[in-house]
Amino acid sequence: MTLESKSQRGGPLDKFREECGVFGIFGHDSASAHVALGLHALQHRGQEGAGIVSFDGKQFNAERSLGLVGDHFNDPKVISSLRGRAAIGHVRYATTGGTTLRNVQPLFAEFDFGGLAIAHNGNLTNAATLKRELVSKGCIFQSTTDTETIVHLIATAREPRAMVPPATVSPGVVLRIIEALKQLTGTYSLVAMTQNFMLGARDPFGVRPLVLGQLDGALILASETCALDILGASFVRDIAPGEIVIIDESGLKSLKPFLPVASKFCIFEYVYFSRPDSFVEGTNVYGARQRIGAELAKEQFAPADMVVPVPDSGVPAAIGYAQAAGLPFELGIIRNHYVGRTFIEPAAQIRHLGVKLKHNANRATIAGKRVVLVDDSIVRGTTSVKIVEMIRNVGAKEVHMRIASPPTTNSCFYGVDTPMKDDLLASSRSVEQMRQHIGVDSLGFISLDGLYRAVGFDARDAKQPQFCDACFSGEYPIALTDFHSGEQPAQLSLLAERG
Amino acid sequence: MTLESKSQRGGPLDKFREECGVFGIFGHDSASAHVALGLHALQHRGQEGAGIVSFDGKQFNAERSLGLVGDHFNDPKVISSLRGRAAIGHVRYATTGGTTLRNVQPLFAEFDFGGLAIAHNGNLTNAATLKRELVSKGCIFQSTTDTETIVHLIATAREPRAMVPPATVSPGVVLRIIEALKQLTGTYSLVAMTQNFMLGARDPFGVRPLVLGQLDGALILASETCALDILGASFVRDIAPGEIVIIDESGLKSLKPFLPVASKFCIFEYVYFSRPDSFVEGTNVYGARQRIGAELAKEQFAPADMVVPVPDSGVPAAIGYAQAAGLPFELGIIRNHYVGRTFIEPAAQIRHLGVKLKHNANRATIAGKRVVLVDDSIVRGTTSVKIVEMIRNVGAKEVHMRIASPPTTNSCFYGVDTPMKDDLLASSRSVEQMRQHIGVDSLGFISLDGLYRAVGFDARDAKQPQFCDACFSGEYPIALTDFHSGEQPAQLSLLAERG
Amino acid sequence: MTLESKSQRGGPLDKFREECGVFGIFGHDSASAHVALGLHALQHRGQEGAGIVSFDGKQFNAERSLGLVGDHFNDPKVISSLRGRAAIGHVRYATTGGTTLRNVQPLFAEFDFGGLAIAHNGNLTNAATLKRELVSKGCIFQSTTDTETIVHLIATAREPRAMVPPATVSPGVVLRIIEALKQLTGTYSLVAMTQNFMLGARDPFGVRPLVLGQLDGALILASETCALDILGASFVRDIAPGEIVIIDESGLKSLKPFLPVASKFCIFEYVYFSRPDSFVEGTNVYGARQRIGAELAKEQFAPADMVVPVPDSGVPAAIGYAQAAGLPFELGIIRNHYVGRTFIEPAAQIRHLGVKLKHNANRATIAGKRVVLVDDSIVRGTTSVKIVEMIRNVGAKEVHMRIASPPTTNSCFYGVDTPMKDDLLASSRSVEQMRQHIGVDSLGFISLDGLYRAVGFDARDAKQPQFCDACFSGEYPIALTDFHSGEQPAQLSLLAERG
Amino acid sequence: MTLESKSQRGGPLDKFREECGVFGIFGHDSASAHVALGLHALQHRGQEGAGIVSFDGKQFNAERSLGLVGDHFNDPKVISSLRGRAAIGHVRYATTGGTTLRNVQPLFAEFDFGGLAIAHNGNLTNAATLKRELVSKGCIFQSTTDTETIVHLIATAREPRAMVPPATVSPGVVLRIIEALKQLTGTYSLVAMTQNFMLGARDPFGVRPLVLGQLDGALILASETCALDILGASFVRDIAPGEIVIIDESGLKSLKPFLPVASKFCIFEYVYFSRPDSFVEGTNVYGARQRIGAELAKEQFAPADMVVPVPDSGVPAAIGYAQAAGLPFELGIIRNHYVGRTFIEPAAQIRHLGVKLKHNANRATIAGKRVVLVDDSIVRGTTSVKIVEMIRNVGAKEVHMRIASPPTTNSCFYGVDTPMKDDLLASSRSVEQMRQHIGVDSLGFISLDGLYRAVGFDARDAKQPQFCDACFSGEYPIALTDFHSGEQPAQLSLLAERG
């Protein structure tokens, strides 16, 4: 039995990659314009495609597009066609393979109660199992996203009798959504919208982030606080794990319909995914990364002439490391910000092109120096090998690599695009073997306890870890149902379609 | 209660417009290339978009595109991606409004038994009623086509116990499709494909055409015989009204699962829709149109110097008229074949631009002459007014208009895009009033009996007309369920989406 | 020494093809909208690309586009950006090869006297010779069109002293243009525009057409009268061979600066190029084609059951033939009007696809009949072979082919895209050899004298033919300078550029 | 008399903007692939469009495209169509207005000696004067670039007798190019290519950079060394001011045909234009910027809690400042790297959107702190105002702005896109007035002497400055011919064309 992770779809990925960002606003005259800006601020969470659905009191209006938010939604005609005071949106990760507009969210469907648009960040671990059941009941799947599974569950859900819904807000519809969510295993931060209300929901473990904001009396749901900042909106609070919020003209109502469990926020959001200026779960990401760097300097000090980050993701930790170690911080690697689409390697004689399209070693700074090179993580290790070679080629005397996360030994199944376990450098190698592979004079990772300390805990609770740290520890807090049932992964379809 | 016909979607249509063409081939190495060519030959049945789905033994492969068949499917890369020895395709009518790729067929869905692709020509008159029921059962609609209703009926159908299916061909699946079709009211000529077989079906009244052909041992289903001719395929026979054919590796099996009813082939296929070189229901269309012209000359002779067709649709009837009347046939109106997309009228001073973009009066031929002007039908009458004015402006002495069909007094609900009844010139005017409106010296229509005679019957059977002639007679042979139930027309959706 | 004609660029062309159409209007508020419509009416003279340049009193505004006029210039934004009361435009022929926007006219250049836009129909036979001289003087060529040669000649021309220009109209500029035109050998119908006036010019032999029209006080220049009709403009007169007209706010002035020569209008304009509704050189084209057909019936009568045209170009002659021969006229071949871009033949087993994409034999009409098949001309003969085979395949008893022009034995170098001489079927074969090649029971061409009779002359004047008939006779009235000097054809460039 | 600088074309620019980058390689099997990569590394010098011309021994091959290098030239089909062992390329700056493919370089033209492709970085100050003369001689201009002026000068130049050319390399052609260059006033770093050789040239003052590199025996010319690094090519030397190098199969020849003058390299290349990893005129740019920061800390120390750069251009100077001042370096502003095309401000209530699309203040880091904010320069000041407001809004206690260049008081006319003098904040304000305008607690600029010290001189030589520093000093070392003659700027054209 093989556990297939999603990155088979893409090329030789050498970063973990957040799969989505969501945004919604209810009660604002420029709803869709604000969604477009919010999605732009969340662009780091997904660059494959973006979509917005608005509701104008009569009709839902949708626009979906492949590419960056600013490529399509900067068109005033597009924005003005998305009429209405409520709108939700979604950005989606990039893969090199079968990208199709059909999979760009929000998904929209019509129910007996009217329309529903839904945008999803996360990954269901029982999607294939649920899909098989739904298809056998007569449901038809037209996309290859988990999200369509949620929509079918809502469509086929019936209002439970026992539970008493909140009196004012479309009780039947909300209860059917809850009924659907109860069947899900996996992770989700959802933003949905009907003709009457906007809904936000986080899975009981709260693996993926979701925050609540406010602007001019309108309420906002977003993956990260940086999407509030771009609008000048104020941060209200995090949506709690297992919480469902219903936002309508009468304001916000909070439901907690699930059995409470210990929360398991994704610790990798601090390491890499979230934007440095965001606050997630109450903690500023830049500050956390600096403390990770400082902790790393304590645990893995290296005598050197300077600290050099692998830009841009290694910069905050490198600053923290340099400050704690008392070493100068230097831009020893310069990044080309115009990368855009990938160049095809045009000729065999141009080696290591991939990394050079994006990075160049700063010879004048590095030549003859002992360098501490700080990166956020090592995934496949291919980039590290090339960067180290590049730095050595310009004459670095020593290269000491320091990594602002523990060795990533396991794939993620909770909404992150990661290589298969066998392709993770750390999955089958000791630190010394990795050091030799990468070709550095020394290699050091922060410990998992050190990482916990940097984000505010004394140490990892061995029995009940405070975060989901499965990629480091292999302890998966949420059942991998499809995997254990040998189910075909949900995203594989009988249909191959382009465009 | 207002009966809304479909042409509200489009601009001020002045032709009845066939809504679709279908094509399928089973058992040929170049299956998708042949489908592309067949669809090209059926392009007159729909210019909005085209799609092809093939099955390669493992996977279904789909390509859909807005625009003409030759704009997209002439790309060898596209054709070679549509692997497999079985493929079906569809061309779809043009509207000026909300055209979207989402509605381009064939539709594809996954079921418990595997994948199914389906292409549909026709219109269901109980689609809204069925959709309401399906949505209340939890079905989700993602397009605005009738065809999706059929797919959901198949998905939710269960195998009936009583009936014994043919032993060899995927009996359960076929029975479920039959079960679904039994719930439909309206018209359909369908081509569908599963992993095991291709299926063709015509509604019990046989309103829309569907023929069977053969090429190199492969079997073909197509809307018209002209799609066989382009491939050099031979015509086998018409699919009978109410017949379902199953084509698989073992050959063809025919089922007739419906209660037999008197057939009602659309008589307008002879008047306008079908291509002149096609044979429909055993009759050559060009010959039928010539006989209509000859019959028209007998019924409505006008002393004149020449017979001039409104090109191109009036040409065969005008030839028949000229031959029967002993008058010269002349191209008094020249057509511009490069019309493409519609010009926006750029300035108020350019009047009657619409007709001039396509037609120009041939002054040298017409000036000073008495002209019999032959057209296939009058719908709104707007084009007729402009063409007559154009002909008078170049000096025609007399204009006698002759129409190769009876007055069109009623909308069609059986798969043809027609204006609302109130917008049909003949719905509220006598022939004399129409004559004055159009501005001709005389106006004559063929009688309904004359039309029947031209296509091979002595006269129309008043109790049981041999054709569907509802647009002329107002006698609708198939129940207009949605209309009588006051149901929202099925094609209206809560979602407005572009692109 | 090889005489290379232009069609090497394209695919296996089987028609002579007019290379361009021009249109200009001076003094109208909707100038550019009218140019767009005029070009649309001239679309049959060129489908590769179209361009419009307007002058708004301060600035010239340009739009050029590949494709059909209606694909780009139906956009109101495009038209409204082409401000001004004077505008000229151009349509350009189609080739399958290296089409580039750089070659789409009108050409624009800045001179010491200001801007000049120019649109050209015709072909210079000393362009390469002139280009070599101009380049050696320091001129830089950026396109591969003859027209740029004219522009450079204007740029480098100096005002001649001797001649007295008309007092009021930009005399120096006009004289420089005349000076430039005097250096040209070959054919041209030009429309040009400066900040002060619009200019029309025809070469001294008047090979290509150019007419003058009037609308609401504005003056119009166009290749054919059909471009006047679409606007409701009135025809004033033909521009005379060797005439230059200057149109400005004060009206029209006519100059005849060249030594007078006997005019040589292209007789093929009657056979095929011009639209049937146009009047060229005072003669209606449809009428001329009917008379050609009638003359052909007299010269080459065949006992038969019907006359069938090769659509659409053979239709008028076939009508004339049928009327003169007393045979029924029948549409025995049906044309598909949605041809668009060419299909790639997708598989070897689909033979004769090319012709079937466009034509289908009407089996019911033709089977068992003796058919006179009328076409306008035979070029390579490839299409004729396929059409005859197609007609035989549906059971025609006899096929008698009649051609409404004499055998085309020579290439054209005067603005028409023709195959090389060796590729012309008639260049090396007797009529009997051609008959066998095409596979017909009999083959007949109209005589050159018969053609002259049909267009209004008793017979061809052997010493001084009234038309250019070089493609039939091999007598080239205008010197083929580049050819005789062994000069590299002007359109070949050192630069290969796409897009 | 108004001195119009180029930025009138663009929007409200708030950066000086380098106008172009050039690259060429001679003698490499993958010539065009290497040009594409070199241009990608030079993308910061121009983002509007890119072009490559290669020569394959027979023909020149060209591709030009709007947008980024990697958007078009990553297509293997494009690269493989650019055959040949010699190729040159160009990237062009971005304007928001009338961008057109016609202006994308390299320019190509045919001469009596064959083809010539040319790519130009710089700006001619006598282009309008030269253009007027050339037009009066009969030259035709089809683009609006200075470069076309150079091409016409080459076309019209004649070989001077007196000078003896180097024996082996196309002496006549080279002499004509020299003759043309001698007529130019202004700045240029050129790369050109004929059928026989590649040529590099820098103007006598050497204002814009140009370097020579080597790879696998092939010689390379590039604007900056970072374009060598991406290929793994080695740096050979700078092309000297006033030097012309001729590179052909026999190697490199150097000519110095101009009267020697003191060189005036653009000091702003160190401040902002060049990439930090490049060496220009022998000095590493990152190191120079760090020293500028350190010098600035000495001259303009501010007591504070941290140093925050305006990313990305302020980073190296901020690092240097922080190190010299002994203050922590912090990322107080986070940049969004997905900016792409500009968003239209969708609603009035979204204020200061422009800066927020790109930057967000890092509240957790800044709140309650005294901040030294380091930027490379102040142009209009609009961005500074918004960034300072953004930082104050998140609670900065004090904001001390430090600028790594002197006040920019004058426009540039030497190949940089700058606002008009009146729009430069410093042109009419004291530092105190600027401080109030920007809203900071203190504002300090490095002195011009300090800037000279940082790039390696003891002080600015008052009589003969070692650099062009006109934007700071107002002393223009090269004549502004067009300006003093009141000539229309060369880039204004009579023609407005899109696309």
What is the global morphology of chain A? globular
Please count the helical segments of chain A: 17
Strand content of chain A: 15-25%
How many domains of chain A, as an integer?
2
- Helical content of chain A stands at 25-40%
Structural class of chain A: alpha+beta
Radius of gyration of chain A: 23 Å
Verbal overview:
- Four copies of one chain form a homotetramer.
- In chain A, helix 9 (285-299) crosses helix 10 (315-325) and helix 9 crosses helix 15.
- The two termini of chain A are 33 Å apart.
- The longest helix of chain A is centred in the middle third of the chain and has 15 residues, at 285-299.
- Chain A has 499 residues and is an alpha+beta fold.
- Chain A has two domains: 6-264, Aminohydrolase, N-terminal nucleophile (Ntn) domain (Glutamine Phosphoribosylpyrophosphate, subunit 1, domain 1); 287-336 and 351-456, Rossmann fold (3-Layer(aba) Sandwich).
- The first copy, chain A, is 27% helix and 25% strand.
- Chain A has 17 helices and 26 strands.
- Residues 1-11, 161-169, 345-349 and 488-492 of chain A have low confidence and may be disordered.
- Chain A has a seven-stranded antiparallel β-sheet. A six-stranded antiparallel β-sheet of chain A has the order 6-7-8-9-13-14, with helices on one face.
- At the A-D interface, helix 1, helix 2, helix 10, helix 11 and helix 12 of A face helix 1, helix 2, helix 10, helix 11 and helix 12 of D.
- Strand 26 of chain C pairs parallel with strand 4 (60-66) of chain D.
